[in-house]
Amino acid sequence: MMRKVHHLEIKARRLSRESFSGEYHASFKGQGLDFEDFREYQHGDEIRFIDWNVTARMNTPFIRTFREERELTVLLAVDISGSFDFGSQHFSKREVAAEIAAVLAFSAKHNGDKVGLLLFAEEPVLYLPPAKGSRHTLRMIREVLATHPAKKSTNIAGACDFINRTIKRKALVFMLSDFVDNDFHKKLGTLSQKHETIAIRIFDPVEEELPDVGKVNLTDPETGQETMVNTSNANVRIAYKKLNKRRLEGLQKALAKYKIDHVDAATDADYLPLLHQLFKTRSSKHA
Prior knowledge:
Elements: H1 2-27, E1 32-40, H2 52-58, E2 62-69, E3 73-79, H3 93-110, E4 114-120, E5 124-131, H4 134-146, H5 156-166, E6 172-177, H6 185-194, E7 196-203, H7 205-208, E8 215-219, E9 226-230, H8 234-257, E10 261-266, H9 272-286
Parallel strand pairs: 3-4, 3-6, 6-7, 7-10
Antiparallel strand pairs: 1-2, 4-5, 8-9
Helix pairs in contact: 1-3, 1-4, 1-9, 3-4, 5-6
Domain DUF58: 37-246
Organism: Rubritalea profundi
Pfam families: DUF58
């Protein structure tokens, strides 16, 4: 495990420094303005910034001046339910999530932002409050890879509620999940109204379309229920594909409704172009 974490640290540090440092800075702005000082009113200044207490003491108008608040509070909300341990290729969804989370965490660290972690399954499993420092960042990476929930089903709505209850100040929330769950769209929308939310859907190609490999025993990783499925039956494959398509269309509709930026990352593909495109799109919004 420590070898995995060390390898991930080296890769994530390099990517965040060489590929994403500037893009991250341009994509995610601070949450407002911090008070800096008072100065005497000058023609053309905003009247609404006049401080009437200081003005009364000095017998001449003074205004409050501000500086842009650059520091962000970032939260990585990572799904560690049973389905996230699946991977038909070289990597599981959890391993891909850990790598993306590491890149985002180091990018935020280089930008001077505080980063926190929420691991969730049927219930919130682990919460590390936003903080700075390399030791904190490395612990987050280790926990994403090593923490296993007692209850393996998925509850995205519960994770959204936990974030809204726990983080009072507006934050930037990256939610990494396969989003295989029910009745969470409204709660995700409520989260996006309070915090800037970005959805990163991580999926395996086998989940999108069943391969023709004959009769197989499929086990639900969250409930343990086993089912014999004849994947050679074309009707079974078509029904599965239609069901998955409907679920994804519902998710896409909800993300569009609540104006949540998102990317879809496959376990068998390079996620870097997707993150670059996400940052590029967001940078153009702030331009």
